[in-house]
Structures are given as structure tokens and as C-alpha cells.
Amino acid sequence: MRRVILCSLLLLVVLACKEKDAADPLKDEATEFQGIVYKEYSGQEPTKPEETEVYEPVPPKVIPYGNKGVPSDAIVLFDGSSFDEWMMVNDSAEVSWILNADGSMSVKDKTGDIMTKQHFGDVQLHVEWRSPAEVEREGQNRANSGVFLQGLYEVQVLDNNDNDTYVNGQVAAIYKQHIPLAMASVPSGEWNSYDIIYRAPEFHESGYKTRSGTITVLHNGVLVQDHVEIKGTTPYIGWPKNPPHGKGPIRLQDHGDNSRVSFRNIWVRELQ
Ligand code: MG
After folding, report:
1. pLDDT (tens digit, 9 = 90+) per residue, 52-84?
2. Element holding 30 (H helix, E strand)
3. Is CATH 2.40.50.1020 correct for 68-270?
4. Distance 95 CA to ligand 1 centre (A)
């Protein structure tokens, strides 16, 4: 009797599994082709186009070139009119950088970095920057600034035109972590753009990092960082560090050496 019950239970389990497979046609299945084993869709091959068409979720509509050319769902962080969205990093005071008449801002040396009042997680960030046409100094001391994601991870801003430096610290480097795939700067004195896709790191509640952040950077439309892993903070001296954190500000660097870097047209889209 006990054997009959066990066999019945086993049969039920087998039938349940078969039912699950039939209802899950996209389940991966190991397949061999010319000696190479790979994963392929399994289940009944669709024979009608409707079987592979989905209608949800519907993507939200975004006007790509909305007000002042900014995507309609973006948060404008700087449009040249004020520093209302920003504050000094050191003491949270009003920004003491220079607001220019042409809709840009310039670093005021030795005043310190600035950061947004709002904090962000995953974002698409657009920043335009310019180094002076009249070049001064060499290496890291020629028009050096930076764009920090969550206040911690620097995408280097530097006038690299005829100005060699260590390549993991050149323009568009993830500072001292990732060499850019290309040097795509326009001539000194012209406006560069950075379009950055940033996915924030994740941390366990006890503090250790469970997933690294990643970053993709287009410099003047040229791919220069391709979904690279952020190893931690980007210090001048020392290894990257991984302090746990939540959302953080966008931060712009005052390198403190007569950099004269300017910024304009900064906006961000929060990503899901
Ligand atoms: Mg820098």
C-alpha cells in the first residue's frame, strides 16, 4: 500500500514538472551544434507572429528635445540662470563659483567642489564643459576638473590636447581605474559634452558591497567608457574604497590650480 502511495506521489510530481515546462516555453535548454554546447529556447516553437509579441509594459513617452532642447522627463540642474540647484561641498553654503553671462559657470579656484542639492541613484547625466583656449601649464595641472557620480566616482575632465599625462587619469578616464577607449576632445576653448549612464553600486545592510556600480560614457558622442565596473572611490593617492552609501549628489571638482574649466547645460534623468 505504501509503495502505491509513493508511486502516485512521484507520478504527480513528474506531471507537475511537465506542466511547468509546457507553460514556460522560454526556459533555456542545453543544445549541441557542431560540438559546441549552448543555451537555446526550448518548448514548442511559435508558429504565429502574435505568439512572440507583447504589449506591456508600455514605455513612457519622452519628448527628446523638449524645453531648451532637454528631454521632457529630465531634471535640469544648470541652465545658466542660477546656482539654485547647487551648494558648496565643504560647508553646504551658497556656491561661490562664477556665473557667466553666456549661460555657463566657471570654477573659482580654491573655493572647493560644488554639488547638487538633490541626491540621485541610477542616472543618465548630460554635462557640457570647456577648457580655456589659452592653454597654461602641463599634465594634470592644465584645466583639470571632474564630474563625480554620487559624489564619489570621478569621470575626469582635463585639457588633453597636446598634453600627455598618465592614461588612467586623462580626459574621460574613470580616474585611476579605467583608461578611456578614445581621446575624443574638441580643440581647447570649444565645448565638450559628456553623456553618462550610471548604475549605482548596491550594499548589504551590514555594509559590504553586493554589486559594483557601472558606468558608460559618451564623449562628444564617441563611446569612451563601455559599461565598466566601478571598483570604488577614485582617490589621487591610494586604492579605491567601498564605503556603503545610498543616493548621492552630482559633484563638480575645483582642482585648485587655475583650471578655468567652465560648465553649462547640465541635466539628469533618473533611471529605474
Ligand atoms: Mg579631475
Report:
1. 999 999 999 999 999 999 999 999 999 999 999
2. strand 28-33
3. no
4. 19
pTM: predicted TM-score of the whole model, two decimal places: 0.86
Residue with the three cell numbers 502511495: 5
Per the prediction, the chain carries an average pLDDT of 91
Q: Where in the chain is the domain with CATH 2.60.120.560?
A: 68-270
CA of 158 to the centre of ligand 1 (A): 7
Percent of the chain scored above 90 by pLDDT?
81
Q: Which of 226, 4, 253, 269 is nearest to 129 (CA)?
A: 253
| Bridge partner list, 264 | 128
Residue 4 in 3-state DSSP? helix
User: Can you tell me whether residue 21 is helix, strand or coil?
Assistant: helix
Q: Indicate if the pLDDT at residue 16 is higher than 50.
A: no
**Span from the CA of 68 to the centroid of ligand 1 (angstroms):** 29
